[in-house]
Amino acid sequence: MRPRDAWLVGGALGVAGLLALHSAVPNGVGRLGSLLETFLPWLGAAVPVLGFLALLGRSRTGLLACLAPVAVWLWIFGGMWFSSPPAASGLTVVQHNVADDNADPAGTARALLATRAGLIAVEELTPSARPAYQDVLGGSHPHRAVHGTVGLWSAYPLSDVRPVDIRPAGFPESWRRGLRATVSAPDGELAVYVVHLPSVRLGATGLASAARDESAALLASRISDDPAGRLLVVGDLNGTLQDRGLGPLTSRLDAPSTGFAFSWPAGLPVARIDQVLGRGVEVAELSALEETGSDHLPVVGRVLLR
Asked: What pLDDT does 79 receive?
């Protein structure tokens, strides 16, 4: 095998290996495993580059080797890429981190209202911006639950509204980012959690996600103890579904069957950290909307009650 062929084959098999065995990448130093999993779908971008180099070098072996990462990528993400037609019925839910420095909360609220979603969940809701959201959403969504910086506007009656404590150790009592409410939807009742997990930072020492992981574990415990047969978790989880740091939570919930719906950062979205997850319900599709003035994009999901 020519050295050039060996280099291309090694690169292709390396990409395939990282895709297939991402959970084997250690997380002990800098949480490299979680960092890789945050951007895991983008490993597929290496395939066109390797394919171009193989064509340039007239390497049939290199081209054939590119089939390995393509096959693994399709195995992991193919179902999300080849989406099915939108469900004709169900409960529409829109989720948005509206940003605490949003200069146009009324405009953002109008954008969320335009989705005609029955449930509108928001995070980073500041006291000063709350009246703007209420003015726009209150007429069509008269049922509201707010706790700290998270809120839920509903077209359907809410009951059993209560805060959910997902505060990591050492965080102040003023840190309030979780609530639960029972929604009386047309097809039946379901519990809805609106949450905002702690932020994750990328620095010289790697990914700082310990607080986020701790909060996710606390939420997972609340979910596990919740007797509701139908349940939704909606919010900014500050992590993707592949990120093992969210594993205690995501392992208990079903993910959307279609749609990448990259939601962050808004200017050039590369990851979906805003989620709509379910238990006893099916999140049939999830899609991202246009920018609203936040650093996140809204995501809208269609939920089918089983």
From this structure: 75
Structure tokens at 164: 């959910």
Q: What is the mean pLDDT of residues 150-174?
A: 97
Rounded to 5°, angle at Cα 138 from 136 and 142: 160
Chain centroid to CA 208: how far?
18
**Amino acid identity at 59:** S
Identify the band that residue 84 occupies on the pLDDT scale cut at 50, 70 and 90.
low
What string of H, E and C letters represents the secondary structure of the chain?
Answer: CCHHHHHHHHHHHHHHHHHHCHHHCCCCCCCHHHHHHHCHHHHHHHHHHHHHHHHHCCCHHHHHHCHHHHHHHHHHHHHHHCCCCCCCCCEEEEEEECCCCCCCHHHHHHHHHCCCCCEEEEECCCCCCHHHHHHHHCCCCCEEEEECCEEEEECCCEEEEEECCCCCCCCCCCCCCEEEEEEEECCEEEEEEEEECCCCEEECCEEECHHHHHHHHHHHHHHHHCCCCCEEEEEECCCCCCCHHHHHHHCCCECCCCCCCCCECCCCCCECCEEEEEECEEEEEEEECCCCCCCCCCEEEEEEEC
Alpha-carbon distance 117 to 109, whole Å? 12
- Amino acid residing at 165: D
Tell me the pTM: 0.91
Burial label for 62, CB within 10 Å (0-12, 13-18, 19+), is: buried
Q: How far apart are CA 264 and CA 273, in angstroms?
A: 7
Burial class from Cβ neighbours inside 10 Å (0-12, 13-18, 19+) for residue 27 reads: buried
